[in-house]
């Protein structure tokens, strides 16, 4: 029996084993206890900190975006609460991705590739939310919320989106907000934008982004492991609502301007048209119409690729603001520069008579008068009034290209006006230096002639044209055009009241500009603009016909029509001033209006008819002088 | 008790005098420690219940129900003469293998494993029961060979007996439980007096087997868990995540803990499976160092009483069974609690009494019942 457990005292041997086992137990428990001590007592503070970090995170609190009003306090935009669908890619398992995307695609009516692209574009941290859809209907949001178990990583949020109350009417000025892109984030990164944030994309929404956005607050929230906020612990910084904008735009004037242009566009079948109304005394833009237009609400609601593609391909290119984002030859409107320059440089006086001819010959080329006949000897008033090409060829020849360019640049041509809207282009003002640099040639006399009548290389934005006229109209102050007058705090107090910003004072005797204003009146009194002169108010202005593109089979070029008009402060015609010359001589006009009709090719000057109709509407005139026959499609060639 | 007139078949062969059960020898301390640990487990169930703990179907109410079943099972096992178990060791062994095969055949689990069998809406993990049944079988096997324990043959034989259930559990796959089987085998052989040289040799063979097992038996996720144990920060969002979050949970508990249901790590779901394998983290986070030490001391006391029952039984079966039971508890405590504190790799081994689960609790109750049966029917056999 003793042999069985192999010793003289098997019970004793086993006892030793039990003791050893007991020691092992004590060692195990001691090791566990020691580890417990290390973790909880020795390093307890460290781990407590980690636990706090785990669940407590700082998160931004969105601020209410500022609103936008017109100059009369009419609200143009509202913030409306909507549902958004966002995805945290890091929480969407790869294996489930296809089915989740397919389901979202079905529910949200967004093509799958688009969702995939959105998710992949939101690079960076895979645990940041990526916005997939904005303005989701309530019932769809509810379905997604109910299916959250089978849609991992998908979150429904409530968020304010922009509702543009006048939509297409002011969308080129207003612009819109949209989901911030990676590029934009890089640009504004330090300003605390979120990956799923919105940012102003166009119009004043973009230029005044910082003003409108306000300041995001910061709060400390407790989250569970899925990232869901369990509760807000404290607010470290209250969000500050964005300030609001008061535009210089007047919705009423904007409506009149759009109505006038739309009327002509429909009759003629024009592709594009621009109307700008400004106050020459301040540089404020009262209306800026660029047709065709688009509804910025489409973007605010989260435009789909298909919708966006359709807008890109729509006739006329509705997404572009043609008032500032494209250059056109200014045609005869540019004779303002040539005439002012010749008078200011003393090449002529307002008495100087210059012979006009059927054409001028230079180096074997003929430069024709627009009526191919000439008008006989003319002074500056009648030269401008008849818009005589040979008259201004000769003035341009006297000035030479560089003096001509100097005067153009003094009027702001060839440089951005600095209007508070995005995507402005600078225009092209040719000089001899430019010709040499770009085309490696000296400039020819014929080209100088062309430049003198706003043809050839001359290429400017409609805003530059009207702004130049404003400087002439107000007696020589070139202002920076603006669409925003004031910045208002959320409580309505004025934060900033923008004063007229002078770009430069034209280096000319005010007499010269008075001469040009009178010459502008002569444009009407000579009936160059048909019955425009019959309006019961005094109007001055200048027409323009600008050839562009390629000659047709008869050697004719298509052309745009321009008209820039202005109305003195007290415009009613008076018996004491039958010609209106006294009124037009004043520099107190508070209304200048430009119309530009792209590729018009009509019997008469379409732009003039648009301005005429606009003035009738704006001044509520009891006459209707519109002449539809002037809007017949033709290849009328005149100035 | 009086009904148990029929003597267990083989008892006479051993020639020992028989004793009828005496409740005077009921080990109250052992029962108390076990109950205390179970109460701690219920507290954890309470704190880990989602929603109201008192709702039917919550972890807590299910825990109460299992406790009731466990008490019944314990009482029955304590009342039955343990020597019957030795008599029916082989049938028990076959039933055990059958249950494990059944688990493989119709069992379910997460991630392509089969661990649970659902009976009447309740999930049951037979591998838990298998531990106790194997303790019975092992004790029975060794008690019949107590005279030959010095030979390598008995050790090899014990290994052969243990091998089939171990393999069946391993292919579920449940690496943790198969390791528990291994620990029970070693612990029991050691305490039963097997030759150390054979034990060392067997241990050496196991170590030599590790590279082969690593290549051929471990699944990817198991390898990932082991890698993560070596460097938890290498893959902090997946397999290393639990280790890191668990240590944060334990560490942030501090001296007195955050208080029941106030654990942020566990209550906010930073730590997955806090109700089962990582219940120790909840415990340490909410009850702190004090709670952790109390639990460790309870385990120590429990183990001491278990070994004492075995020692005092003066019965080879009783001694071997108590050894197997103690080895099981100690190993599970070390691996589970160690895992929670980042000392051990992640394996699905429950913390005895505290991890929620009916199979674990009822199996432990069965084992404790058998121990009480041993305690109350001590053999008078001289060694």
Description:
- The complex is a heterodimer of chains A (639) and B (383).
- Chain A has 21 helices and 23 strands.
- The longest helix of chain A is centred in the N-terminal third of the chain and has 33 residues, at 10-42.
- Among the domains of chain A are: 2-42; 78-164, Penicillin-binding protein 2a (Domain 2) (Alpha-Beta Complex), CATH 3.90.1310.10.
- With 639 residues, chain A is an alpha+beta fold.
- In chain A, the strands form eight sheets. In chain A, strands 12-11-23-22-21 form a five-stranded antiparallel sheet, sandwiched between helices.
- In chain B, α2 (28-48) runs antiparallel to α13, α6 runs parallel beside α8 and α6 packs parallel to α15.
- Chain B starts with 10 loop residues before the first helix and ends in a 7-residue tail after the last helix.
- Chain B has one domain (25-376).
- At the A-B interface, α1 and α2 of A face α8, α11, α13 and α14 of B.
